[in-house]
Each structure stands twice: as C-alpha cells, then as structure tokens.
Specification:
- By secondary structure, the chain is an alpha/beta fold.
- Helices cover 36% and strands 19% of the residues.
- The strands form four sheets. Strands 17-18-16-19-20-15-21 form a seven-stranded parallel beta sheet, with helices on both faces. A six-stranded parallel beta sheet has the order 11-10-12-13-9-14, sandwiched between helices. Strands 1-2-3-7-8 form a five-stranded mixed beta sheet, covered by helices on one side.
- Strand 4 and strand 5 form a beta hairpin.
- The longest helix has 24 residues.
Amino acid sequence: MDHPDITADILCGLPLPGREIDLVLLYHDARDERLQLKTPEGTPIHSFVLVIEVKQHSPDLIRFEGPRVLVRNDQLWSDATYQCDDQTWALKRYQKASYKGKNRRQPTFVQRAIWLPRAQNSAFDGIPAKSSVPVHFADLNWNGLVDGFVTNRGSVRTLVDHSDHPTHHSIETLRAHLTHKVSPTRLDLRRVNALTQTRFDADKTAYIQNLGNGLLILRGRGGTGKTFALVQVALHLARQGKRTMMLTYNHGLISDINRALRFIKEKDPTFKPLPKLKTRYAFTQDIFKQTFGMAAEEAVKTIPDIGAREERRLFELMNYKKPIQHEYDFVLVDEGQDWEDKQRDLMFRLFGPEHVVVADGVDQFVGQDRCNWDRGDIPINRRHGLRASRRTKAATCQTVAEIARELGLSDWDLVPDPDTHGGRFTVVVEPDARRAVERGLNILESDQRQESTVKAVDNLICLPSAKMASGINFSALFDEAIEVNARDSWRGFEEEDRRTYPLRDGQLRAVQYSSCRGMEGWTTLCLGLDVFFEFQVGHPRIDVSRLEQSLREKEGFLFSKELMEEELAREARLFAIYWLMIPLTRSIDHLVVHLSDERSQLGRILRNVSDRLPGSIEWMHPEGIAQ
C-alpha cells in the first residue's frame, strides 16, 4: 500500500559486528489507529522491527526437531532457530550503541521469522506449532507475515513517532543507526592493507605453508604482533575456503578485529568466509548447546556461578562418547597462556592439534597457572618466536625495555622494528584525578593537531577500575570530561559499548586495564597507572597452595614460613610487573603515563630510567611545581 504516512524499509545483508543479518524490516504507520493496517486477527499495526533468517535450502536439506528448524550445510545440521535468536540479540545490542558519548537509546522489541523460500508447507509433516520463531515458506505474503506478531498495548507497536526522542528509537533514528556508514581512518586502511597482503616473509611462509600438519605456536611479548599474525592466518585460510573461529576473552579486542573485518569485506565483498570471533566462554556454551540441546543448557544455567557452569560444560563435552560436530576447520587461540589445561584439551578434541593455532604471550600471563600447549605428545607445525615490536615506535620501545630492565625482567627481549623511527614517552604527574583526565585529553588533542591524519578513534585510553583506584571512578570522570567538552567516546568499559566497535571516527576509545590486551592506540593514555600497579602488587592471582607445595619440594627440610613469605612477595611483584608491561606496550607513537604520586613504586622506577637516560621521558608536573 502506497501512502505518505506509511514508511517501510527493507535492509538486506545488514552488517553488524561479527555477523550479517539476512533481512531486517522496519515499518511505521503514523495514521490514526482506525486507519492502520491490521493483522488477520484485527490488531492494528503501528510499527515493528522484524528480523528474518532466510534459508535457501531445498526441502530434503530441512528438518524439524521439536520446536526448532534445522538445515544441513555439507554434512552438518545447523539450528536455524538458534541462528535467528542469535541475530535478534545482535540487532538489539547494536541498537544500544551510543549516539554520542554515553547517550544511548533503548533497544526496540524485535519480531522474528524464518523464511524457507525454496520449500512448500505441504512438503513437511510435524512442523513445530509451538516454535518461538514463526516459520514461513515459498508462499509467504503480508497476512502470513504479520499473523501472530507479538502485540503491545493492544497493537503491534515498538517505535516512537518522533525522531527527537532521547531514549527511544523512531523509524528515522533506527534507520540512520543501522545504515550508518562506518568510515575507516588512515590507520585503519594501513592495518587492512597489511592484514590482506598475500606475500609473506620467509618465516611466515614456512609456517603458513605447513598449516594443518601440526600445532602452530606464535610466541612473543606484548606488541610483537601475535594477534595480528592470527588474523593474517585466518584470512589466508579464508582464501582457501577454510572456516576459522578465533577465540579470546576480550570483548574490546573482538570489537577491534570485527571493525577491521568490516573494512576488509567492504574492500573486497567476495572475501569469504571471514573468520568468526567469540570469547572462549561463548564458544564452549555454543558447542554444548549444539551437542546436548537447549534443555541441557537451561539446566546448566541454573548453576549460580559462571565458572562452575563452564566447568560443567567442559566435563560433559570431554566425556561425550560420540564425535562432536561443528562447522569450523581451524581454531585460532589468542592469549593462550591464560587458558586452563581442560580448555586446551577441548580444542584438541574438537579440531585436532594440527588445526589449532595459538598466540602465547610471554610477558602477558595474568592467570594463576600458565597453560602449556606444547604437551609433547602432539604433532608440531612450528614454535615461532616473535621478537621485534610491530606496534611501538623505536624510541618508546627502547624506553619500555629500560623500564623492564629496571623492574628486573632480565630476559626482556622485545627489540624495536628497524623500519620504525621516532616515538615519545611522557609522564604526567597529577594527584587530582579529575585534572589528570583533563590534562590527558588535552595531550590527545594536541597530538591530533600535530598529526592531521590521526583521528580520535585511533587513540586509546586505559583506566583503572574504581576498586583498583581506592574508590576514584576514572570512568565517570572520563564521561564527565567528554560531556563537558562536547567530545564523543567509545566506552569500552561498559557492556553496551564493548560489544560494538566504534562507529564514528570522532570517538575516543576508553577501556579498563583488564581489557586492554591486544589493543593499540596511536597515542595511548594510561590514567592512574601507578595505582593500578600498586593494586596488582597487593592483589595477585597466585595459587598459594601450589606455590607452597613447589617450594617444599624444592627446599625440603630448609623450607620455612619466612622463605614462603619471601617467595610469595616475589611472585606478587612479578605478577604485577607482567600486568604493568601490558599497557606499556599499547602505544604506536606516543605513550602517556599518568602518575597520581611521583613517589610511588612506579614513579621511582620511571625516575630512575629517566635519570639514567636523559631525554627518554618527558615529565609534565602540575603548574607551579618544580620539576
């Protein structure tokens, strides 16, 4: 029906972080309720948002099990109902992404449907009548589509009428949000070009040509390009038609990589299958649901502790007697050093060691026990060491190496890339947290003015949590500074933003230290780094019982309580040092470290390095205080 008060949009192949939705329908009828179109039951239709999962399978590749629709790809039956649910939640999460700073609109209700355009209803018996997702066939029409829509206050209604509403979506604001063009910065384009190159150096060529013949371990310190190499491997496999799953614990890093993959897809639409990214926890959960069904997953969800839920899934999967099916050819594991043995063993069971690639961070171990992927009983492709810094410019890299030496990391072997020059290291001393945030943001602005091709989104801000900063809420102070100065931000310290990559090049990216591994910024601002370091020294993740047992075995009758306390203090400091080196290796051009107290442990360390190497660190004190 063509009417000026009725607006309908059909969005095909809608790209969202990490996935693509087949069809999204937006509909709004601004007329009086008496004039609006009706469902077959007579319910007026004011507005709706509809996700349609389209499956172009022939009838012999479709089957119904209970309330679910399954389709076969190759030899694997996949759950179209679950995929539709997954896309629905992805759309709702994307709707919540902020439109400026911390300002966001609430997600709409989303209607759902599965469409089988190559199948007739009459070809099937036992169609799931109680399916949570309506199923449509080749004869789909308007009445069939809207029949059974969920109603709201006596009508089908989900959008507001006016686009100036601050917290709810109209069809105009939602359309603009979903069709917004995400523009790559110059740094994005440089990264995309490097990721998609097809020629490799001799070292990479050696292990890439041997993929599938044994476990590949990429080992290196922060900034050596481990995650970058994983994505390169995934894209190389994609050119061969291989499907890969990349696993990490860090939602912020997943968003960063998904942003790059979006630009890669736009650069070459034929590039597929693109790698998928998930957290280790989400992947295990998906495999468990696929293997044992939704009823088993719902039973696991009744376990209160999230760690205990994962333990249960791992136990059931490892003891499952039949082959476990999945759709991927290779798994790429990021931050493999922080996995547990049973999690590692599940990957070996699902893929076989020869189809596993692991990035192992030498100095980025923050768990209680380092996972050893090289068990000794599995085939090995290569143990590949990465030493050159592929991120940080030479001068900053050298200063960070001196800090590592000052901290007692005698085996620190990260060396500058001979092709990178320059780099700066600045220390901002500021006891007032609010003022520290303002001074740090001013430095970022100054850097952007000096380098016109760098956008706000190319930078990175790392924050301690309020618990780590003795109650000082750096995240709230950051939000306040953004709002007061009319800036924009990507708030990676919040769940709503962390799962969606930055959409605007004016967004300053901010994450908590616990989520900064694998991320990078042209200028990286580390706020409250001294209080973060002090917290890690005082709250190490150490298995005290295992440490005591190891010390007793080593020392025998010489073991004592005093010796145990000394060993515990040494391990606590080492734990904190490993954490400290992670944010210190996030910058590309300029590393800015904020100290709340110059006399802190970290302050004294940086002063010693500065005195030993004059000119390596620029010190910025509060106004009126002598340097």
